[in-house]
Write a structure and sequence with these properties.
Blueprint: E1 2-3, E2 10-17, E3 20-26, E4 31-37, E5 42-51, E6 58-70, E7 73-82, E8 87-94, E9 102-103, E10 116-124, E11 127-134, E12 140-141, E13 146-148, E14 150-156, E15 163-172, H1 177-181, E16 184-188, E17 191-196, E18 199-205, E19 211-216, E20 218-219, E21 222-223, E22 226-230, E23 240-241, E24 252-258, E25 264-270, E26 278-286, E27 291-296
Parallel strand pairs: 13-17
Antiparallel strand pairs: 1-5, 2-3, 3-4, 4-5, 6-7, 7-8, 8-9, 10-11, 11-14, 12-13, 14-15, 16-17, 18-19, 19-22, 20-21, 22-23, 24-25, 25-26, 26-27
Length: 297
């Protein structure tokens, strides 16, 4: 039995199903594993839920998986590095949250000519949508001397095998006042560059009908969770950047789930430091049309 504080976890994702919590973690180069628990504190290793198949379009870097229940099955949205040097979100399916998750199709669902990561599923008015980040390394904007991360949205076909219609740009990371004020500075091919990251879009509906999206940029020496809101409840926005971070203590890549007590729990990793990452859980509530952290558990 492992305590949560002893498990190194990046990009944690928790599913609660039939009284059991499943926690998935970015830890492997070619595999994606999970832990299971009945109380969110004591965990057992569950094994490999997904492994990159042989003769596949992608070959390593199994990142930022999300497991969503949709029409009675469980779907894994996972970022992989392709043999063409670009990343994409692969969608896989299983009858159980334990896997094994098998690819729906032999390709990424995100655009094949862009590096896309962190795909998430949101079902809006009965239609499935994917939101994802167009980011590193093919998003360099020469005139700005910066890598500009972008959040994109697209409707999916009902069977989740492809994008339906054209994706739309939700926002660029440098449009956020918080992200723009303190950009991340990097070295790239011998040049000093800015990097406005755009990790981990996640959408949930608020009680008043608005849609709230959280996402994580790298700021200067900090990793944070920022909120944007569609006050109209329209999936295509307009999306408004809220003025304050939801979390700003060098942690991010947040997702949310309902626990056994029906509390809304935000799960993220912190700190943003190699090999020190742990899953942190916070009870959140709504406060005047926005989310508020109540306590850490």
């Amino acid at each position: 039995m492992l305590k949560r504080e002893d498990i190194r976890v990046r990009d944690p994702f928790i599913v609660f199903e039939d009284g059991i919590y499943y926690m998935y973690a970015t830890t492997g180069k070619t595999t994606y594993s999970y832990y299971h628990s009945r109380d969110l504190e004591n965990w057992e290793e569950g094994g490999v839920a997904f492994e990159i198949p042989e003769d596949f379009w992608a070959y390593k870097d199994v990142w930022a998986g999300e497991v969503h229940k949709y029409k009675g099955k469980f779907y894994l949205f996972v970022s992989l590095l392709g043999k063409n040097g670009l990343r994409g979100t692969q969608i896989c399916v299983s009858d159980t949250p334990r896997g094994p998750f098998l690819p729906l199709v032999q390709r990424a669902v995100t655009p094949l000519d862009q590096s896309c990561i962190d795909g998430t599923l949101y079902v809006h008015e009965g239609k499935p949508y994917i939101f994802y980040s167009h980011d590193w390394p093919d998003n360099y904007v020469e005139e700005k001397g910066a890598f500009i991360g972008e959040i994109w949205g697209a409707e999916l076909t009902d069977d989740l095998t492809a994008i339906k219609g054209e994706p739309w740009l939700v926002f660029g990371s440098d449009e956020s006042p918080i992200s723009k004020a303190t950009p991340h500075r990097i070295k790239w091919e011998g040049k000093d560059c800015l990097r406005y990251g755009s990790d981990a879009p996640w959408i949930q509906k608020l009680s008043g009908g608005s849609l709230l999206m959280t996402w994580s940029p790298y700021l200067h020496n900090n990793y944070v969770v920022l909120p944007v809101i569609s006050r109209s409840g329209c999936i295509e926005g307009p999306w408004e950047h809220l003025p304050e971070p939801l979390f700003d203590q060098n942690g991010g890549h947040a997702m949310f789930f309902l626990d056994a007590e029906d509390r809304n729990i935000m799960c993220l990793h912190a700190p943003e430091a190699n090999m020190l990452e742990r899953a942190h859980l916070f009870v959140v509530t709504e406060d005047e049309g926005k989310l508020k952290i109540v306590t850490e558990i």
